[in-house]
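Students often ask why inverse folding is considered easier than folding. One informal answer: many sequences map to the same fold, so there is more than one right answer. In these notes we will look at a single instance of the problem. The structure comes first.
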């Protein structure tokens, strides 16, 4: 891999680790304030909102300046969100600030990877990204569990910091949030050390909001109308929407059916992360870019696995099933994500294609989280809810497979599918 690639991976992993740990800390903060249960998924909703609302702007922004510099600045924005949380601002508002930093960070991160490596290394590079992201989710979940543990919250250091920061934010989680401040600071320093790829793009003719929205709408239409781009965008959007919803569903399922605390339920998600790492590693090594669509049946299997998880009533069978779900998800998303980036880079530009991808994937996240929060507010039991989610996913991916097979019978293989040696 090119010089600076692994530093980029490490920096974004630490930033993502802090994002995942912050979610657990914020959920604990809501519990500390006796907020309703359905507010928890709204944290992710607030975090994701910027990906959708700012999508027309963040692509041109990522292409307008060296991407490593933008990543450094956006870690500073995330840091300020945690500082506001420590000062007593509502967790939903603080998460919206952190989400803004993450939204502008994403096209810079993926766009820089696309600029740094060629198509023959793009699947392998995406394997590195997804493994690092899932490792960050794994370690971030573990870190979040540690940060909300009673041992830390009641420690002398935590009590001293609580007294030192005497304000309206009277919380036992001040030390936990200070740890996350440090994590974002380290990530910013690492991003600052990533070398510039040298890629430059022509600026928009006019930096007017309506012009940017019009250009973004055209880019969105271009990617959806492309045969391979539209297919991979549909599947990755489903995957990330399901993943965000499943994160909260597993927490609720583990606390209600397995009787675990939030701390231990957070650790249970490590099984999913470990499975995704294994699946992403296998896909990165053994699936060529031209064969990416052959992993589509894994999406049907992913959906059908969720009801099995919901029916588990003991810890270790649940751990094994969650690891299996993660592995299937990793096998599915890495090749199709690489195919989507490849088509987006050819049709648009690195930053713009990732912004379109982020818009669609996160719009699906918002829709699914809003639906999940509404069902929780209506007291729908978690087991039927997970059954509904799994059947919908399996059906949606089966429909995508049927449509692709029909198109292939009429038009033959797509252009990129013929290059089976591309990795």
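Output (designed amino acids):
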């Amino acid at each position: 891999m090119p010089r600076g690639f692994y530093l980029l991976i490490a920096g974004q992993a630490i930033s993502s680790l802090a994002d995942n740990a912050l979610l657990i800390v914020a959920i604990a903060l809501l519990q500390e304030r006796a907020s309703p249960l359905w507010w928890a998924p709204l944290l992710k909703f607030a975090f994701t909102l910027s990906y959708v609302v700012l999508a027309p702007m963040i692509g041109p922004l990522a292409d307008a300046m060296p991407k490593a510099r933008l990543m450094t600045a956006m870690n500073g924005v995330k840091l300020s969100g945690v500082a506001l949380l420590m000062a007593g601002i509502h967790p939903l508002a603080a998460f919206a600030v952190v989400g803004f930093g993450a939204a502008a960070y994403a096209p810079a991160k993926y766009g820089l990877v696309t600029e740094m490596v060629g198509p023959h290394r793009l699947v392998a590079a995406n394997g590195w990204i997804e493994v690092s992201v899932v490792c960050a989710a794994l370690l971030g979940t573990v870190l979040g569990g540690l940060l909300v543990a009673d041992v830390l919250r009641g420690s002398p250091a935590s009590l001293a910091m609580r007294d030192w920061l005497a304000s309206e934010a009277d919380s036992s989680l001040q030390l936990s949030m200070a740890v996350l401040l440090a994590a974002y600071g380290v990530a910013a320093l690492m991003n600052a050390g990533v070398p510039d790829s040298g890629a430059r793009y022509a600026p928009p003719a006019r930096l007017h909001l309506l012009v940017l929205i019009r250009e973004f709408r055209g880019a969105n239409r271009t990617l959806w109308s492309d045969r391979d781009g539209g297919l991979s965008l549909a599947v990755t959007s489903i995957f990330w929407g399901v993943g965000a919803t499943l994160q909260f569903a597993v927490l609720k399922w583990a606390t209600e059916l397995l009787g675990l605390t939030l701390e231990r339920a957070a650790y249970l998600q490590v099984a999913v992360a470990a499975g995704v790492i294994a699946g992403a590693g296998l896909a990165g090594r053994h699936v060529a870019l031209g064969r990416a669509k052959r992993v589509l049946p894994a999406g049907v299997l992913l959906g059908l696995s969720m009801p099995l998880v919901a029916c588990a009533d003991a810890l270790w069978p649940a751990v094994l099933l969650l690891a299996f779900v993660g592995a299937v998800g990793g096998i599915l998303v890495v090749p199709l994500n690489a195919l989507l980036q490849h088509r987006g880079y050819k049709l648009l530009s690195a930053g713009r294609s990732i912004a379109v991808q982020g818009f669609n994937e996160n719009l699906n996240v918002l829709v699914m989280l809003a639906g999940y929060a509404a069902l929780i507010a209506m007291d729908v039991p978690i087991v039927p809810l997970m059954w509904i989610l799994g059947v919908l996913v399996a059906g949606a991916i089966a429909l995508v497979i049927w449509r692709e097979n029909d198109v292939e019978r009429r038009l033959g293989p797509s252009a990129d599918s013929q290059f089976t040696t591309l990795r």
